[in-house]
Each structure stands twice: as C-alpha cells, then as structure tokens.
Specification:
- The chain has two domains: about 15-75 and about 270-395, no CATH class; about 90-265, no CATH class.
- It is an alpha+beta fold and about 400 residues long.
- The radius of gyration is 24 Å and the shape is elongated.
- About 25% of the residues lie in helices and about 30% in strands.
- The chain has helices spanning about 25, 40-55, 60-65, 135-145, 155, 200-205, 230-240, 270-290, 290-295, 300-305, 320, and strands at about 15-20, 35-40, 90-95, 100-105, 110, 115-120, 125, 150-155, 165-170, 175-185, 190-195, 215-220, 225, 260-265, 320-325, 340-345, 350-360, 365-370, 385-390, 395.
- Helix 2 (about 40-55) crosses helix 8.
- The strands form four sheets. The protein has an eight-stranded mixed sheet with strand order 7-6-12-13-11-8-9-10.
- It binds zinc ion.
- The site of zinc ion has 7 residues, from helix 2.
- Zinc ion binds near residues 4, 6, 7, 42 and 43.
C-alpha cells in the first residue's frame, strides 16, 4: 500500500488523490505535472485551505485575474478558474459621503454590489445590475422573515479551529433584534460579518469626506453579508431595517471621473508561504521521486505544512522557511514574459534544498525546503521549470 509523502501514513490506494505540482489556477489548461498515488486525500484537503487563499486573496490573485490562466477549458472563457475574493473593495463618489460596496469579476469593470446602506438618516438601497436583485431579495427574506438567523464571525477563525456563530433573535413584541446565544461550530452558518477597513484606508483617498457605515450586501457567490464595526453594531443596523421607510432621496447624477475605486487585500503570509513550500516539495518529489521526498530530513517541512509548526516564541516557521523576493539574480533571471512562471530547485550551501518561484514574471519567492541527506546530494542538480499558462503549460528547460 502506498505511503503519503506528507503525513507518511500507509493508506489504501483509494485514499489517494492526484496532486498538481503547481496549482491548476496558475498552471492553466495546458500540461501540468501531477503526483499520482503520493498524496493522501486528507493531506490534500488540508492544503486546499492555504492554497485557496493563495489563489483568491493574495496579490497574485489580481495578476491572475488580468493575466490568466483564463479557465480550465476554452468554453468557460470568461469564467476564471477560481474567482478573486477581495473583502475590501469600495466605490467612492464625488460629493457623496457614503461608501459603496463594489464587486469585480474579469473582464468587467468594478461594479456596485446590490446593497442596503445605513445613510445616517435611515437606509438606502443601491443596485448596480438588475440580475442581482433576486439574490438580494432572497437573502433579505430569509433573514427578515425568520424568527432567528445566524451570523458567522470569520475573524474568530483566524486564531481558532472552529467558527464563532451568533444566533440573532427577532423579538416579536418590541420590533428589534438581540443576540440570543453564541456557539462554536465546525461549519459557518448564516450571514458573514465583515469588519470595517482600517481608519486610514479611506482617509487617504481623494474623496476623503466619505465614511464607512453598516450595510448588507451580496457577494460574488450571491450570499448575503453584513459589514459593520462589530456584531453589536450589526444588530443595531438590523433594527434600522424594521423602521418605517424614510423618504427616498434622489440618487446623485454620476459623471465619468466622479468614481474612485478603493480596494485592499488581507494577505495571510503564513498561508501563502505554506502554499509555496508545498509547491516546491511537490516539484522535488516529481523530479526525484518518493524515496527522496519521504526522507526524515524533511520532517520539519511536513510539520510546518500539516501542523503549522511554530518556534518557541510562537512564530510560524513557515515565515522563516520562505520569503518574498522582489528582484532577480543571474542564476534565476526574469523572463520579460508576464505569461510565464518560473520555478527552480537546486542545492544551496550546506546541502540545503532551495526552491525559487516567480509568478507572472513578478511575484518572487525564495524558500528553504530542508537539508538533503549527504548520501543523496550527488544526485541533485539545478532543475529549471517553465510554466506558460496561456500556451503549452509546464516543461523543464536546460537554461534560462
Ligand atoms: Zn497524507
């Protein structure tokens, strides 16, 4: 029975899944190398958390959205392999103190998400595209017609293994909402609570009179979310929805140049670095085989990837094993082709297995995967891999 190169458990054949050396979201529809029968399903699932972050929320996600790969196949030409998720993406309008939720999906410009905003004098509803209306209505109905509904606090999850969920009850006699109880669960439930951006985020903009208020909106998966400073502010905002309608104000005329789009990423470097380390180790296993990959010298790397191993001060060791590297070096030069990713695996001093990766000829990473056992070092040479996501896919090259 095969042994997983990550957890080192022996499992039945059907417990293994093919593992792409470089995630498909970067490699495109062309040739990609896969490890077959080397990575178990359980490890694969564990990796998907930080790989999804790398694909959807890191800086590369913006490059990927413009640069490709377009999709897994040609038919879905304008449907990206995975959507970009940007939690803070706003439209500001000249002379308007409100900040609007925006969405973005290639190849379209940023657009208004359907949303209900606290204006300070009541609530106001904004819809950018009419086909978004049914999702907003369905989300609101589910929330306002139910006796109670859940709100999940995603930020809690960053430091805990479970989700924190507030059960919000609508009081029948006095029309307002209260938090009835808190619970922790393995799965999120109900609405997502998104926080406000940092104070300085909007203050530095051209339209700096704009300020953030609570709101409900629909995300790119057509799920309702609430944005508020905290859960208590969210519940107060829900109360506003029960108030009689305020007079409807006319929307301001929007002229070209009156809009500013502001966005920020919330990058979890620990996730990104683990995804890079795993890619490097996949490549090592693909090029040299499982005997090299299963060696106990790589146990520290396995513990970083599977158990998020920390040092004595509690800092993640992934942050020490990997770093971003903006520049290029003579032995790992840039390609001047933004459609190309480059990977290089070689031996650094003291037998350290070094992995370098550059995506879209721009985002560079430098990683130490571990120390190659002395008896295996003579077999290791410099290996260069080029990935052209728009055309042929992955291949090894002799020189850069
Ligand atoms: Zn495993």
């Amino acid at each position: 029975m095969p042994v997983c190169i990550y957890c080192l458990y022996t499992k039945a054949d059907d417990q293994f899944e093919p593992e792409h050396v470089l995630p498909r979201g970067f490699a495109g529809a062309g040739v990609n190398w896969t490890l077959t029968g080397e990575v178990c399903r359980q490890c694969n699932r564990h990796f998907s958390t930080f790989e999804a972050h790398w694909l959807r929320q890191a800086m590369e996600s913006m490059a990927r959205n413009f640069q490709g790969p377009v999709s897994r196949n040609e038919r879905e030409r304008f449907d990206r392999a995975q959507p970009v998720e940007i939690d803070d993406l706003y439209i500001l309008l000249k002379g308007d103190p409100l900040v609007y939720e925006a969405g973005f999906a290639f190849p379209n410009d940023p657009h208004f998400r359907p949303q209900i905003i606290d204006t300070g004098k009541g609530v106001s509803c904004v819809v950018g595209r009419m086909d978004d209306v049914p999702s907003l209505k369905a989300g609101l109905d589910a929330m306002l017609l139910a006796e109670r509904f859940d709100v999940t606090v995603p930020r809690w999850r960053e430091g805990h293994s479970d989700w924190l969920i507030a059960s919000v009850l609508r009081r029948q006699h006095a029309p307002h909402f209260i938090i009835e109880q808190w619970r922790r669960e393995s799965k999120p439930s109900g609405l997502w609570l998104r926080g406000f951006p940092h104070d300085s985020f909007l203050a530095q903009r051209e339209h700096s009179n704009a300020h953030m208020t609570a709101r409900l909106a629909i995300d790119h998966r057509r799920r309702l979310y609430v944005r508020a400073a905290n859960i208590e502010a969210a519940v107060s905002f829900f109360d506003l929805l029960l108030q009689p309608h305020a007079p409807i104000e006319k929307c301001p005329d929007i002229k070209p140049g009156d809009q500013t789009v502001a966005f920020s990423f919330q990058i979890n470097l620990n996730h990104v670095y683990k995804a890079v380390l795993k890619t490097g180790f996949n490549l090592y296993c693909y090029l040299y085989g499982v005997e090299y990959a299963r060696h106990s010298n790589f146990q520290l790397l396995r513990e970083i990837l599977l158990r998020d191993k920390k040092d004595n001060s509690g800092a993640s060791l992934a942050l020490r094993a990997c770093r971003m590297e903006a520049g290029d070096t003579p032995d790992f030069p840039k390609s001047a082709n933004t459609d190309e990713h480059r990977m290089q695996l070689d031996l650094a001093e003291d037998g350290i297995l070094r992995f370098r990766l550059r995506l879209y000829d721009s985002f560079g990473y430098y990683a130490h995967l571990g120390v190659v056992p002395a008896e295996m070092r003579s077999a290791i040479s410099t290996r260069r891999v080029s990935v052209r996501s728009a055309t042929d896919g992955i291949r090894e090259v002799d020189h850069w």
